[in-house]
Design brief:
Layout lengths: L2 H26 L2 H17 L1 H4 L5 H19 L23 H16 L3 H12 L4 H8 L3 H16 L21
Helix pairs in contact: 1-2, 1-4, 1-6, 2-4, 4-7, 6-8, 7-8
Family: Belongs to the sigma-70 factor family. ECF subfamily.
Organism: Catenulispora subtropica
Pfam family, one: Sigma70_r2
């Protein structure tokens, strides 16, 4: 890699590392595995940096590598997935937030509910709602059709709606009305 390309890649890597690790954690549920996934994604990106940097959306390209690396991990090894009970959040709490303790408890409930979803559905939910990606961006990252993203999101949201972890009246992740609520 040329010195200018290396400097450009290092800048890219430094700015995208936290977001990639966060996404990888949401996909895998394990902090150490998330760091490994992000590192592999960046390694693959570095190897093709001369092509990647000219891509329309470099972030989408790297996220697709990240998701594919996570999904291929299951193809190679049939391991039982055990998600961590909570994600470390190094960000300082927002002083304007109504109740930081409740937000943290809600977040852990959402993460626990996500852990009950199959890996493909969880990937769709993480990309669509946590990362706020469009259906077409999610489909591109996952390498599938937009209809697949819609059906996987529909199935995942249906499972989350009936999840006992999200049974209270506080709509954490879901904006669809529950029965008995206006």
């Amino acid at each position: 890699m040329k010195a200018t390309d290396e400097a450009e890649f290092r800048d890219f890597m430094a700015t995208r590392w936290p977001a990639l690790v966060r996404t990888a954690y949401l996909l895998s549920g394990d902090r150490h595995l998330a760091e490994d996934l992000a590192q592999v994604a960046l390694e693959k990106t570095a190897m093709a940096w001369s092509r990647v940097r000219d891509a329309h959306d470099v972030d989408a390209y790297v996220r697709r590598i990240l998701v594919n690396t996570h999904l291929s991990r299951f193809r190679r090894k049939r391991v039982q997935e055990v998600l961590a009970p909570s994600m470390p959040d190094p960000a300082a709490p927002d002083p304007a937030a109504p109740d930081p303790a409740q937000r943290l408890a809600d977040r852990e409930l959402v993460l626990a509910a996500l852990a009950t979803l199959p890996r493909r559905q969880r990937a769709v939910i993480v990309l669509r709602y946590w990362e706020d990606r469009s259906e077409s961006q999610t489909a591109e990252i996952l390498g599938c059709a937009i209809g697949t993203v819609r059906s996987q999101a529909h199935k995942a949201l249906a499972k989350l709606r009936v999840s006992p972890l999200l049974a209270d009246d506080d709509p954490l992740l879901l904006d669809a009305p529950k029965e008995g609520r206006a």
